[in-house]
From TrEMBL:
Residue stretches making up the Peptidase M3A/M3B catalytic domain: 260-707
GO biological process: proteolysis
Name of the molecule in the record: Peptidyl-dipeptidase Dcp
UniProt GO cellular component terms: cytosol
Superkingdom in the source lineage: Bacteria
Any one Pfam family match given in the protein's UniProt record, by short name: Peptidase_M3
């Protein structure tokens, strides 16, 4: 998710590194202006011109774009007029348009088309991005002007949104080292450039292990238990690697999870599990452990230089949690009931193993397989019976329908709008009166050079400076592409993820603020997951399932009794989901509270999880050596807890709908748009939640949502 203008570079550079972004030297000198820098043309204020992207031109293009913004920044800093909002803060908001557009192309190529020269390009430019951002935030004349506006008596006459923007600029500059002396600034810049290089290498190593480490299956007998569509996708994956007649299990979550859930061959489950969970931890050129050790030390040094006790204290200061202690307190409150739920489930799964005559103790690679068996035994629910109703295209239509019912948004396919890959589609979004709201791009399938997982991006943020600029957003997934003409069937968890990421897209599309830095998803990290998490809830409503969960062969809707089973089993296996997440979030926080000591990541992970009492049948959702949220950029570093913090808001907010007329209560939905989805970062997020809910958040709703007894 992108912010804009001065902060755009900081956020976009981090995002680009996280997605594996960078640049390579091209053949064009600075005197030639690459077409990638051109204003966007076409409908709706212009659209990205993907056909103008020349990967080899990224380096010279960025040199030109940074020089242009450098000149704009110098003009602001050296303005002879007395600093005021218009000639300083507003001028900063209007700077860097070419750079914004270029980062859109760059981020997409780094995250979804990361092949050929792109890895080398990223390694070249990552430190340059960091140095350029430091050049802006360390510009003393510029900061003095921002500080003057921030401290001016005239600030009281600004609108609340202008005051918020001024505060944000001042705060971010200070937190980025604007008040340090020259020697300290030089050291800080050195640290930031080195970190940028390490982040890029971390991303590339992880992506290499995802692309080059995989499981090959030679015999059809070893596919027992796997659904037909999965087997077909594995055959296609093998053929793509010139292994026709075999089956390949790719090293991504979207391939790993259904295999571990369904495959009867325990030996192969262990192999697939090891291949996936040991990414970045296999020794050799792609091992990330040494990088993590250095990243942690550099982050601690940076925090100390900026006047903070640890990196965690620096990162959490501007978040809703405010301090590491508050974040840890919430995680610890969830840990005990989650652990108790896991203990109960493991005991029941072990009984199933024993009853089958198994002579082994449940291991992590067995957990998903026997959890499904236990779900069927307890609730008569087999998710293999659900999957035939989970057609990706139909569920996408269900997302659109939900957005229409709640927010009066309507999506129309626009094949005339160019995309960057044949698998990608573009959609126009209109309101109920036919007015243009924005564009939504959908990139659903896994492919070589695309990072794993699912995410949302903003290609262009909403703003209303000189005129109203509509947003352009995308959702990206890694579903296994089926055979031509065949529907793509996804799991229930994948369907929830689709709705989750679409919630981020709606947050971007419904933004209605003036200043681009405050628009859309540019909120506190532990708030931004709130709009996405609440959107998951509409998937399981009868209205969506009855219309869009249609059998791929018969076209009939999912049976009511199957929906009832899903509803009854809603909190089943919540112990596993919560615990694997909490393990990652707690290790993230502990690593960044550990101070400046030299850490062996594998040893630290192992010892700290033992102290925490993580059940041995579970591992971290993201083990440290491939924890991209935390080590491929600063994004979620000391911040992975934020999903839980946001979910406390989500659970409480959902109860507001249920206290009203139910999930489709238009009055509550419009209040949600007004106070949350349209407001961006124009207010303190705690205040925004109070405006929606009428009070502060109550975390007991979170316990109810997850089916936990908080006394456990």
């Amino acid at each position: 998710m992108q912010a804009k203008r001065f902060v755009h570079l900081a956020v976009a550079a981090t995002m680009a590194v996280t997605m594996g972004a960078a640049m390579a030297h091209g053949d064009h000198g600075p005197e030639q202006r690459p077409a990638m820098l051109d204003e966007w043309t076409g409908p709706h204020g212009g659209v990205p011109a993907w056909d103008k992207v020349v990967v080899s031109e990224f380096v010279p293009a960025f040199e030109i774009a940074m020089n242009e913004q450098r000149a704009q920044i110098e003009a602001i800093a050296n303005n002879a007029e007395k600093p005021n909002f218009a000639n300083t803060i507003l001028a900063m908001e209007k700077a860097g348009g070419a750079l914004d557009r270029l980062f859109t192309y760059y981020g997409v190529h780094a995250g979804t088309l990361n092949v050929g020269d792109m890895p080398k390009i990223q390694q070249t430019l990552a430190p340059k991005f960091a140095a350029f951002q430091d050049e802006i935030t360390q510009n003393e004349k510029l900061f003095k002007r921002i500080e003057a506006v921030y401290n001016s008596k005239e600030k009281a006459k600004l609108t609340p949104e202008e005051q918020r923007l001024t505060w944000l600029y001042y705060t971010r500059f200070v937190r980025a080292g604007a008040k340090l002396d020259e020697k300290q600034k030089a050291k800080l810049s050195e640290i930031n450039q080195r970190l940028a290089t390490l982040y890029t290498q971390f991303s590339q190593n992880t992506l290499d292990d995802e692309n080059n480490q995989f499981t090959v299956i030679d015999s059809k007998d070893d596919l027992k238990g796997l659904p037909d569509d999965y087997i077909a996708a594995a055959a296609a994956a093998a053929e793509a690697r010139d292994m026709k007649g075999k089956w390949v299990i790719n090293n991504t979550r979207s391939a790993m999870e259904p295999f571990l859930t369904n495959a009867a061959n325990r030996e192969l489950r262990e192999k697939v599990w090891n291949t996936y969970y040991n990414r970045g931890d296999m020794g050799g050129a792609t091992d990330n452990n040494a990088l993590i050790t250095e990243i942690l030390q550099l982050r601690f040094q940076r925090a100390q230089l900026l006047g903070y006790k640890t990196h965690a204290h620096w990162r959490l200061e501007p978040q809703m949690a405010g301090t590491p202690d508050r974040a840890v307190e919430l995680m610890e409150a969830m840990w005990k009931p989650a652990a108790a739920a896991v203990k109960r489930d493991v005991a029941e799964m072990q009984k199933l193993i024993d009853a089958e005559g198994g002579k082994f103790k449940l291991k992590p690679w067995d957990y998903r397989y026997y959890a499904e068996k236990l779900r069927k035994a307890k609730y008569d629910l087999d998710f293999s019976e659900v999957k035939p109703y989970m057609q990706m295209d139909k569920l996408r239509d269900g997302m659109f329908w939900s957005a229409a019912q709640l927010y009066d948004l309507h999506f129309t396919l626009r094949p005339d709008i160019k995309t960057y890959h044949p698998d990608v589609t573009a959609w126009e979004v209109k309101n109920g009166k036919g007015g243009h709201v924005g564009l939504w791009y959908f990139d659903p399938y896994a492919r070589q050079g695309k990072r794993s997982g699912a995410w949302m991006n903003a290609y262009r943020g909403q703003e209303n400076l000189d005129n109203f600029v509509t947003p352009i957003v995308s959702n990206n997934s890694n579903f296994l592409k089926g055979q031509p003409g065949e529907p793509v069937l996804i799991s229930w968890d994948d369907a929830e993820t689709m709705f989750h990421e679409f919630g981020h897209a709606l947050h971007g599309l419904l933004s209605n603020v003036k200043y681009p830095t405050l628009a859309g998803t540019a909120t506190a990290r532990d708030f931004v997951e709130f709009p996405s998490q609440i959107n998951e809830h509409w998937l399981s409503t009868p209205e969506v399932l009855n219309q869009f969960a249609l059998h791929y062969q018969t076209g009939k809707p999912i049976p009511a009794e199957l929906v009832e089973k899903i509803d009854r089993a809603q909190t089943f296996n919540e112990g596993f989901r919560s615990m694997e997440y909490l393990a990652s979030a707690m290790i993230d926080m502990k690593l960044h509270l550990a101070g400046g000591k030299k850490i062996d990541p594998d040893k630290f992970e192992r010892e700290e999880l033992k102290k925490l009492g993580l059940p041995e049948e579970i591992v971290m959702r993201h083990r440290t050596p491939h924890f991209g949220h935390v080590f491929a950029g600063d994004g979620y570093s000391a911040g992975y807890y934020s999903y839980l913090w946001s979910d406390s808001l989500t659970a409480d907010a959902w109860e507001a709908f249920m206290e009203g007329k139910g999930p489709w209560d238009k009055e509550v939905a419009q209040r949600f748009v007004k106070t949350i989805l349209s407001a961006g970062n124009t207010k303190d997020q705690a205040e925004m939640f109070r405006e929606f809910r009428g009070r502060d958040v109550k975390t007991d709703a979170l316990m109810r949502k997850r089916g936990f007894d908080s006394s456990k």
